[in-house]
Structures are given as C-alpha cells and as structure tokens.
Amino acid sequence: MYSNAPSGKCLGCGYEGRDKSFRYVRYCSKCYKKWKKERAVERKKMKPLNENIEVLEGFIVTRNVRKRLSEIAERNIPHSRLYIFLIKYEILFAFIPVLLNLILALLGARVPGILWGISCFFFIVILSITEKMIRSEVTKRGPKVKLCLEQLVRERKKRIDETLVFYGSPEWRLIRKDIIHEQGDICQECNNIIKEDYDLTVDHIKPRSKYPKLALEKTNLRVLCRSCNSRKGSFYEEATAIINGNTK
To answer: Count of domains in the chain?
Structure first.
C-alpha cells in the first residue's frame, strides 16, 4: 500500500515501516491525525476569549469587533511616505558609508582606519535618527487612529440603535407577517422547507442601509432561512442576529 512511501519510526505509537506521513512529519498517518486535533485544541485554548470590553464610556463591544474596527481605523489613517521609505530602506541607507569603504577596498584602494571609524559612526547616527523619526511618526499617528476608532464605534452604535428601532416597529412586524403568509416557509434561495421558526427570516433583497425607501416595499422582501441570510454577510451581522432573534 505504501511501497513508494518513505520509511521511518513513529514518535507516537512506535510503528516502524513505510508511511506517507513520514514524508512530512515523524508520525504515522493515524498518530498524525490525532496530533493535528490535539494541536487545534491547544491553539483554540491559546486564542483570547471573545468578551465584552468598554472602548469608550458607555460604548461596549466584543473583543473581536474591537479588533476588526481597529484594523479599519489603521487602514483609514495611512502612514506617511517618509515612514514607509524608512521602514523599507532604513538598514540599506545606514550601510551606505560602510558599503563605500568596502567597494574601495575591493578595488584595491587602501582604506584608512579612521574612515572605517567614521563609517561606523555614521551608521549608528543614521540608525538613531531614523528610529527617532519612526517613533515620532507612530506618536503623531496614534491619536488619529484612536480618534478614528472612536468614530467607528459611535457610528456602529448609531446603526445598531436605528436597526433595533426599525425591526421592532409595528410596521415591520406587520409587513413581515404578510410576506411569510404570501411566500410560505420555503427559502427563496435554497428552496428548502424551513421547519423551525427561529430559522425563518425575512430578507431585504436590496440592503436597507443603501435603499431605505425600499425598506417596507414588498417587492424588495423575501423569505430566507437563517443560513442563507447569514451567508449574505454584513458589517453588522452580529446585531442583525440579535434583532432577528427578538422579532420572531
């Protein structure tokens, strides 16, 4: 079965012979699967828990949401061109005096020791100056990123509050009931029968955030199972899940 597989000894069960897994790790196929599962469990334990944290006074988000919003804030406040240049070419720029001396030495010229000393001095000076400039960039950019993050948190809270008001309104409850009565309990996407009330959702074909005038338009509404609705994805999908749960 494993005639072309490499031979070896398994560190797990002690099996000696040929096994395709020995090509990559020192485990047989069975022990390798077990090792992968144990490693996945360990990685999951090392992953920080997704808990609620207060970003601003009165504004609480989960750790994962804060991480996502922080990444957006980092992208919205780009680094200066000088910072990007220093990050890429700092070492090369600092090595220029030393490289010049090396080139002269390779060409056969006699390089005095004082020139090597000056080159090393400039190397240290250039590195210290560029490091100060990089720290200055980080110090100036930090408050801007923080301000952008706070703005994103406030906008997110505002969107969630507006969504809660809309999906809790009697107008939405009434039209949702009519759509379910007209279209039944069959998902318009996957055509499966929705057996549980919890999985029965009414979806906006054109997003309500972009087309508010079509929010209560029947032609823009359809019955979807929760799985198909979630697959559409949304920046505020965690809020939508809570809302859908409250309006069933």
So the answer is: 3
Domain boundary (114, 140, 165) is at 165
Is residue 96 domain-resident? yes
> What does each of the 248 residues of the chain score in pLDDT, given as a tens digit?
456 778 888 888 888 888 888 877 888 888 888 888 888 888 777 766 767 778 777 788 888 888 889 999 999 998 888 888 888 887 777 777 778 777 877 777 777 888 778 888 888 888 888 888 888 888 889 999 999 999 999 998 888 888 889 988 999 999 999 999 999 989 998 888 888 888 899 999 888 888 888 889 999 999 999 888 887 754 334 444 444 444 43
- Could you tell me the pTM of the whole model? 0.57
CA distances for 18 relative to 59, 130, 154, angstroms? 59, 55, 60
**Domain boundary residue, one of 143, 165, 187:** 165
Q: Specify which residues 204 forms β-bridges with.
A: 221
Does any domain span residue 2? no
Residue 126 sits in the same domain as residue 144: yes
Quote the domain boundaries for residue 36.
Answer: 7-46
